[in-house]
Amino acid sequence: MAEYDVVVVGAGTNGLLAAAYLAKAGLNVCLVEKQPFVGGGALTREIGTPGFKHDVTSIGHLFIQPNPVIKNDELGLLSKYGLKYIFPEVCTTVIFPDDRQLSLYYPGVDKTCAAIEEFSKKDAEAYQKFYEWSSTILEMLLPFLYSPPLPFGTIVSMLEGSEEGRDIIRALMMSPLDIANEWFESDAVKTMICRVSSEAAMGPAEQGTAFVLFAMVPLISRCGFPLPEGGSGMLSEATAACVRDLGGTIRTSSPVKRIKVEGGQAKGVILESGEEILAKKAVVSALHVKRLFLQLVDAEHLPADFPSKVKRIKPSTHMFFAQHLELNEAPKFKAGGDANRSFWPVLSPYLEEALEVHEGYKRGLTTNKLLHSLCCTLHDPTRAPAGKHTLYTGCWNPYYIKGGPQRWDEIKQELADSILEKLREHTTNMGDDNILWRGGFMTPLDLERQLDYVEGDFMHIGHYIHQLFSNRPLMGWGHFKTPIERLYMCGASCYPGAGVNGGARSAMPVVMEDLGIDFEKVIA
To answer: Nearest-CA neighbor of 404 among 366, 449, 441, 459?
Structure first.
């Protein structure tokens, strides 16, 4: 029976970062992970031919760039452990059915505005103003995004004191589609705005989900869509090396069966093998909130109504289906120009049909539309043998498809084939002679089975306003503490939300304060 100061459960990027900060504070930390590898969604693997490195789910690392873990290199991930980011100029490109295209660029907004002007001069001017307005919102929120959140009521009270603040409250309660309709006239520009907002795995017409739009637009202009050299998993590997150098223990292939609770306090974890790992000071979970409270904690240790509140947490409106390819040459889009050097090309119908696709997800309809196609080797040739390329391509799709989620095993080959056919319609070189290998299909059901994303939701839970800020994951439980003393939450289910954002850092001041540790001295 091993004993540590702190046991961290789940070795995705958030669990890794939590373990690193706690180890840096001088604590004896054990990080336990179900999978035989660390990284969670930020994972790079050779799933096809040796030498071809594929990012399994997470690819772009936009939201972690302003985080002090990267911005100030608090753990030495950049300076000591070799993490390096690449910043493509053409961040994302929407390619329409007629092969017209519209791109967002880094850095700044001038090139983006010039691209928009080809569709609407009025919208080009509006986009500049929208960027300035959304930047104001982001500037107000950035100081709080990587620290413990202010109570939601406090934020609202602060904003209510001015006309500008009331405009922000109104906007946060709206949908990205509402915002697009208010600001822009061109169908193409509105489609692009809705495409950006859908990166939160939410339909653009969902009310109370506009926050991601106010964050994405200014951040893309400031940070681009950074990708780690060597693959998304380089962040995970660098952080794991940091944990070990600081004396922490990482145990993979160690699935947790139960959180050990005695006298209302978390005392450690019990593995599926029966082994107990004790925690003298705290247990920190980076797992999905539903997995933690509905599977790993006995209901007798929770308030009577707590499990029912957890059950009603809303997932995202759609998930992702992906496949991986290895190519002789990168895709050549018929659209030409910047589409062929874009980090994130997306094939999308115009607005009306795109909205119909999003609505279809709610009825369990699968589709090869809203197709993403990322050829990371265009920007990072270290991921493949010289002159060769990897390709990640797929579409948003629902977890609850017609006939139930188990049907994913039946239909994934057919859907993968149709996605490839759709890509071929808009490219000139994606015939069989260019494809060296194809596979690695990842359905929403696979995401649940392989990476523990409940209901296939790699965002953990939906980014609705009632599940954001200190409302995440539950109102009243948004400050990383739980009803069980010495049991803490961090990760995608918690503030500031999902994605590779280093959100676990926000929880560390709370955990360390309870343990009598000065967080500011740890990071100094």
So the answer is: 366
Measure the CA–CA gap between 180 and 186, rounded to whole angstroms. Answer: 10
Write the pLDDT tens digit of every residue in 301-354. Answer: 999 999 999 999 999 999 999 999 999 999 999 999 999 999 999 999 999 999
| DSSP per-residue letters across 296-348 | IS-GGGS-TTHHHHHHT----S-EEEEEEEEESS---BTT-GGGGG-SEEEE-
Number of Cβ within a 10 Å radius of residue 66: 19
Ordered by start, the domain boundaries in the chain are 2-41+58-83+229-314+459-523
pLDDT digits (tens, 9 = 90+) for 99-144: 999 999 999 999 999 999 999 999 999 999 999 999 988 887 777 7
Distance (Å, rounded) from C-alpha 83 to C-alpha 520? Answer: 24
25 Cβ contact partners less than 8 Å away, ≥ 6 residues apart:
512, 515, 517, 519, 522
Task: Pick left, alpha or beta for residue 306 (phi over 0 → left; psi -120 to 50 → alpha; otherwise beta).
Answer: alpha
330 Cβ neighbours under 8 A, 6+ residues apart: 340, 375, 377, 378, 389, 391
> Residue 431 contacts by C-beta under 8 Å, 6 or more apart in sequence?
424
* Residue 367: partners with Cβ closer than 8 Å, 6 or more residues away: 357, 360, 395, 396, 397
Query: What b/e readout covers 379-416, taking b as 16+ CB neighbours within 10 angstroms?
Result: bbeebbeeebbbbbbbbbbbbbbeeebeebeebbeebb
User: Which 3-state string (H, E, C) describes 198-266?
Assistant: HHHCCCCCCCCCCHHHHHHHHHHHHHCCCEECCCCHHHHHHHHHHHHHCCCEEECCCCEEEEEEECCEE
The encoded tokens of residue 74 equal 């608090």
What Cα–Cα distance (Å) separates residue 169 from each residue in 40, 104, 123, 465, 516? 34, 26, 24, 10, 36
- With vertex at residue 382, the alpha carbon angle to CA 379 and CA 384, rounded to the nearest 5 degrees, is 95
Task: Give me the residue label for tokens 């596979």.
Answer: 439
**What is 2-41+58-83+229-314+459-523's CATH superfamily?**
FAD/NAD(P)-binding domain (3.50.50.60)
Q: In whole angstroms, what is the distance from residue 441 CA to residue 398 CA? A: 15
Do residues 191 and 119 make contact, with C-beta atoms less than 8 angstroms apart? no
CA 222 to chain centre: 18
CA-nearest of 187, 163, 164 to 177 is 187
- What is the pLDDT of the chain when averaged over all its residues? 95
In the beta sheet, which residues pair with residue 374? 392
Q: How large is the C-alpha radius of gyration of the chain?
A: 22
Tell me how far CA of residue 407 lies from CA of 289, 305, 402, 418, 445, in angstroms.
26, 33, 8, 17, 9
Q: Which is it for strands 90-95 and 101-105: parallel, antiparallel or unpaired?
A: antiparallel
- pTM of this structure: 0.96
**3-state DSSP assignment of residue 361:** helix
